[in-house]
Structures are given as C-alpha cells and as structure tokens.
Amino acid sequence: MPNRRQLTLDETQDMQRLREVWDKKRVELNLSQQDVADAFGIQNQTAISQYLNGRIPLNLEAAIKFAKILDVRVNEISPRHSQWISDACDKALGLRLGDFLEGVEAPLYLTVDSSDVAPVLEQGDIVC
Questions:
Q1: Closest CA to 72 of 12, 15, 34, 25
Q2: What is the pLDDT of residues 51-70, one digit of tens each?
Q3: Are the C-beta atoms of 31 and 25 separated by less than 8 Å?
C-alpha cells in the first residue's frame, strides 16, 4: 500500500474543525456517515470516514458539501476554503464582496440543485 502524504497544518486544522462540527451536529441532525455519503453522491461512507479521520485532506467541494449537510458556514469547517470562495467572488465581481454586500458576514454561495437554469448553470454548479 502506498504511503499517504501527511496533512499540512491547515489541512489538519480543517479536519479537526470538521470532526468537532460532525461530533456536535450528527446527533442533532440524526446523520450517519452513510447519510453523508449518499448526499455526496458516493456509494459508501469510506471517503467520509477518511475526511473525518484525516486520511485524506478536505478539498473545497467537500468542505462546501459538509457545510451544507451539517447546516454550518464553510468558515466553521475551513476558513482557508471560505477565504478562497470570498476571493473568487471578489475577482468575479471586480470588487470586494464585502463592499458589494454591505453587512454580510461571510461569503454566500448556492449549489444548483436542478438544471432549470441551464445552459447558464448546470446541476451541481456552485455560485457565489
């Protein structure tokens, strides 16, 4: 079996925050790892377990999906991914998101759940 690379400090901190949120919210929301795997669109919970236990690093897409499923802001799980979303929105808008949406604390994002807005947006697209 190939050696896995160690998580960076940021990735380890993301995993720890994810685990803390998971431990708190899974009971409140009555979730199993298989429920989360189903919401992710994957067959079994192995990848979910690996995210929660730091075997694989949390990527942007997974951070957004976990935040949505656990009903928290991305920033509560991964400030670095939340910052990336904010920076991407800033670049797309040509100005700081905070200037555009005065009073908004954190980046806003939507995940498209249907193809009703195709061809502009497709199911699964993330919009900020």
A1: 25
A2: 999 999 999 889 989 998 99
A3: yes
In angstroms, the CA 20 to CA 37 distance is: 18
Q: Is residue 67 a contact partner of residue 77, using CB atoms and an 8 Å limit? A: yes
Q: How far is CA 58 from the centre of its chain?
A: 8
Residue with tokens 């896995």: 4
Residues pairing with 27 in the sheet: none
Give the angle 18-24-26 at the CA atoms, nearest 5°: 85
- Single out the residue of 128, 25, 106 nearest to residue 69, CA to CA: 25
Q: Would you say the pTM of this structure is higher than 0.90?
A: no
- The Cα–Cα gap between 102 and 55 comes to 39
**DSSP states along 40-62:** HT-SSTHHHHHHHTTSSPPPHHH
